[in-house]
Amino acid sequence: MSIRVTRLRIVAPALFALTAFGLATAASEPDLPTPKDVKESVDALRDAYEKHYKAAEMDAKAKKDLAKKLYTEAPKRKTPAMQYASYDEARQLAAVSGDVRLTLDALVALSTKFPGVDQNLAPDTIKLLGDAALASTEDTGLIALTTEAASSAFEREDFTTTVVLGKLLATAAKKAEDPDATLEARRLLREAEALTAAQGAIKAKPNDPAASETLGRYQAFTRGRWDVGLKYLEKAARKELAAAATLDLANPKTSKDRAAVGEAWYKLAQEFRGLEQRRVIDRAWEWYSAAIAVAANDEELKASNERVKDIEKNYPALFNLSFQGHTGAVATAAATLDGKTLVTVSNDNSVRVWDTRTGKCLKVLEGHTGWVGSVVLTPDSAQAVTAGGDNIIRVWDLKSGKETAQIKGHTVAIRGLALTADGKTLISGASDKTCRAWDLKTGKEVKRYGDGKESVESVAVSQDGKFVLAGNDAGVITVYDGKTGDVVSKYDRHDGMMVYTIVVSADGKTALSGARGKDVHVWEVATGKEQRRFKGHTEQVYQIALSPDNKLVASASYDKTVRIWDFDSGKELKKLEGHADGVQGVCFAPDGRSVYSASWDKSARKWRLPLLSAGANKRLD
Q1: Which residues are paired to 598 by β-bridges?
Q2: Are 455 and 472 within 8 A, CB to CB?
Q3: What average pLDDT does the chain have?
Q4: Which structural domains are found in the chain, ordered by start?
């Protein structure tokens, strides 16, 4: 069974109040109240809100207002019966008044909060909405809103609600003569009902092979939750699936045994299609990569390496996701702590927020009046701080997409930003020849560094704020004491070429920098003494990033590549190619398993990495 949820075109925004209900666990959900208790609660509501009910009989707006009041106050009610009655009254009033969105919100709340709710709620809701609402779906947004609500319910694995909404969607689609919506409704119903049946079978018989296979495939192959899915799959009806899952769960340590797990999944993948095949192939690639990381000899390395190259060639979408939408060169990117969201900045004056799983643009943050070249995220990933050609540092709330603050002081283009690990102090450098420290909360300037004689092209700060580093257009990087502003050291080995990028290791001891030269320079922060160089790029290096564990280095270059290096040895481990123009930005995902790049070709990309830092330095291209 292939479990998929496709999204139909949305003709109206779907803003559902799902979060308060969708995360409730089975243990916290109240029992379904009896019809008698519900009736008594409805009578109490009508007595308490007699004035509102009377007004609702005469006026459609009053109906909507009362429905909204009952829905909003439902969570505050003390008994399950009163909560149920409040939601159900809100559903009925909203439907009769033509408020489709509120109708669906109330229906979702009932289905989610009260498992086992009457399945007749869906057809009853359709009846209440009436033929007028069904016939004018473009105006009411009924099909779009129902599709979005049903898909959301499926995503959070609330299959009971999915079934209720799927039935509502099916009826609405038939009335509206919409074959796309009809197909979607059937798919949702088929998949939700199959999973509901499997869950029921597992409760009755925990080792049921067919049910285990259904749930295992859904969790591992559809959702990518292998830790959950494997425990089901090892009990699957198909022997090959069960055998592969058993090998996987054993978590082998040797290269030979890891490659065997990869081979088991690779062979199985050929039997699947679509998303399921991609998930299984991806799992095979993970195990082959793990085998390479601990390969003891050339024979072991070659066998797994060949399979890795084969997978990457034939399944490029798994390893190179493109983010398209900017109309100008993309300068750089930053990933949120949970790894779900990417923030990019561009020469098109915009900041964009993306879903890292799908590549879909979620928000466009507009406000900058010039190119945007720098972005940093606060430690909690709640805010993005951006700057560029309009001389203003802007702070954005990522949830709402709204600009929450402006930090002013620089008089010309801001070339770089850096933030201390506690998120309190922001460092900026600009072409006005100043490097400044700001209190991010208040926006006040707290310190200036340097003599103001050279344009500041890049900045960095140690995690504890002890050191502030500023690179200038003459090829010199100055290390300052973060508190006093005194010069600690200088690094001047970039041969007079503009310094584009600086990054500091987690312990604050080592800095890496890149300039118009082709090398990545590694040097000691306290003394300015060069330690080594990473050689391989054929053009200038624009940005450098360190992996979260500080074992890998990523560098972006005008030669159109991103390269991955072993931090300790300086050996090149991976060359990522695919951009059509120079690459000027790079960052790691929080888990260190992916990198994001930003390019002059107006795109950003996500690249998957094998387990490069787990073992010896093995080149994989």
Answers
A1: 585, 604
A2: yes
A3: 88
A4: 19-203 (no CATH), 209-318 (no CATH), 413-535 (2.130.10.10)
Distance CA 245, CA 242 (A): 5
CB 67 within 8 Å of CB 99: yes
Report the candidate in 335, 382, 374 with the shortest Cα–Cα distance to residue 355. 335
Q: Which residues pair with 553 in a beta bridge?
A: 546, 565
Residue 306's Cβ-count burial label (10 Å; 0-12, 13-18, 19+) is: exposed
Per-residue pLDDT tens over the stretch 372-382: 999 999 999 99
- Partners of 523 in the beta sheet? 511, 530
Residue closest to 492 by CA, chosen among 513, 477, 511, 514: 477
Rounded distance between C-alpha atoms, residue 101 and residue 120, angstroms: 19
**SS in 3 state form for 401-457?**
CEEEEEECCCCCCEEEEEECCCCCEEEEEECCCCEEEEECCCCCEEEEECCCCCCEE
- The whole-number pLDDT of residue 612 equals 57
Q: Are strands 330-335 and 603-608 parallel, antiparallel or unpaired?
A: unpaired
What pLDDT, on the 0 to 100 scale, is given for residue 611?
Answer: 61
Cβ pair 304, 262 in contact under 8 A: yes
Enter the pTM of the model: 0.68
At 211-227, the pLDDT tens digits run 999 999 999 998 888 99
Residue with tokens 């690249």: 607
Q: What's CA 522's distance to the chain center, in Å?
A: 32
Three-state DSSP class for residue 185 = helix
